[in-house]
Design goal:
The protein is α+β, with helices and mostly antiparallel strands. It folds into 2 domains: 60 residues, no CATH class; 203 residues, Fumarylacetoacetase-like, C-terminal domain (Fumarylacetoacetate hydrolase, domain 2), CATH 3.90.850.10. It is built from 7 helices and 18 strands. The radius of gyration is 18 Å and the shape is globular. Bound molecules: zinc ion.
C-alpha cells in the first residue's frame, strides 16, 4: 500500500501524518518526478514499508500539496456515467462511455483556488483512475492490474461554454485553467475495501450537494479501462475522470459564487478544499 503525494513539485510518500521525499528516501533523483513515481508504482509498496523506518521530512499538514499526477499525457473524462445524473441532465443513457477530454493544463492541487470564468460555473465530484501500467486492448479482467491507484477530482464546468452549439463540444468548457482540482493523494488500490464501491460527496459553502457511491457507475472502472484502451494506447499517468453523480448546480439552478468554499471528499482518498474566486480583470 502507498499514498503518493506531491510536495513542492516533488514526489513524496505519505505515512500517516508525515511525508517522505521519494528521491531522498531512495537516493534515486529520477524518483523526484511524480510521473516517474507513477510509472514505477509497483516499487512504491516496498518503499512505503521502508519509509516507516526512516526519518520523515515533515508533516503533511505543514505543506501545500501539489498535483499528485501533474503531467498526464491524456485526461479522459466520462459524461453521464451515473443514471440519476443522466436523468437530471435530461439526457438518455449513452450506449458507450461518453468521453471528452480535460486538457492537462487545467489540473491544480487539492487546495488551489478555482478561478470562476463566468456566472454558471458548476461542480462535479468524481473518482479519478490513474493508469500505472500502459497497454492497448486491455481486457476487463486485466484492467485493475493496469491501475496505479485512485484519486479524487473535480470536473469543474462552465455550462454555457460546455453546451454551446449543436452538437456541443464539452472539452473547452471543462478546461479553463484551475478547472481540474486533483488529489489530495494517489492511493493504491489495495487500500480500498472494495474499489468498485467508494463513497464520494461534495459540499458547496457548507451545503451537501452530491452524495453517492461508485457502485452506481453505469460503466465501471474495468469497463472504462478496457474501452478506452481499445481506442488509445494507455500510458502511465493517464487519468480517467469517471463521471459525476447527481446533484450538480445546473439541476439546482445554482452555481459557484465568488468566495465560496468547495469541499469534495471520498472514502479512503480524503478531501479537496478549493476556494472559488473571481480573477482580477486583466
Ligand atoms: Zn464530469
Amino acid at each position: 500500500m502507498f499514498r503518493l503525494i506531491s510536495v513542492a513539485g516533488r514526489a513524496a510518500l505519505q505515512t500517516g501524518e508525515h511525508w517522505h521525499d521519494l528521491a531522498t528516501l531512495t537516493s534515486d533523483p529520477s524518483l523526484a518526478d511524480p510521473m516517474a513515481a507513477v510509472a514505477r508504482h509497483h516499487e512504491l509498496h516496498a518503499l512505503h514499508e521502508a519509509a516507516a523506518d526512516a526519518t520523515p521530512d515533515g508533516l503533511v499538514a505543514d505543506v501545500t500539496l501539489g498535483v499528485c499526477v501533474p503531467r498526464p499525457q491524456k485526461v479522459f473524462a466520462i459524461g453521464l456515467n451515473y443514471g440519476r445524473h443522466a436523468a437530471e441532465s435530461g439526457m438518455e443513457l449513452p450506449p458507450a462511455p461518453l468521453t471528452f477530454t480535460k486538457f492537462p493544463s487545467c489540473l491544480v492541487g487539492p487546495t488551489a483556488d478555482i478561478e470562476l470564468s463566468g456566472p454558471a460555473v458548476d461542480w462535479e465530484v468524481e473518482l479519478v483512475v490513474v493508469i500505472g501500467t500502459g497497454g492497448r486492448h486491455i481486457s476487463e479482467d486485466d484492467a485493475w492490474s493496469h491501475v496505479a491507484g485512485l484519486t479524487l477530482g473535480q470536473d469543474i464546468s462552465d455550462r454555457p461554454v460546455q453546451l454551446t452549439g449543436k452538437p456541443p463540444q464539452f472539452s473547452l468548457g471543462k478546461s479553463f485553467d484551475t478547472f481540474g482540482p486533483l488529489g489530495p493523494a494517489l492511493v493504491s488500490v489495495d487500500q480500498f475495501p472494495d474499489p468498485d464501491d467508494i463513497g464520494l460527496w461534495c459540499d458547496v459553502a457548507g451545503e451537501r450537494m452530491q452524495d453517492a457511491r461508485t457502485n452506481d457507475l453505469i460503466f465501471d472502472v474495468r469497463r472504462l479501462v478496457s474501452y478506452l484502451s481499445s481506442i488509445c494506447t494507455l500510458v502511465p499517468g493517464d487519468l480517467i475522470f469517471t463521471g459525476t453523480p447527481d446533484g450538480v448546480g445546473a439541476a439546482r439552478g445554482r452555481f459557484l459564487a465568488d468566495g465560496e468554499l468547495l469541499v469534495s471528499g471520498a472514502e479512503v482518498i480524503g478531501e479537496l478544499h478549493n476556494r472559488c474566486i473571481t480573477p482580477a480583470a486583466s
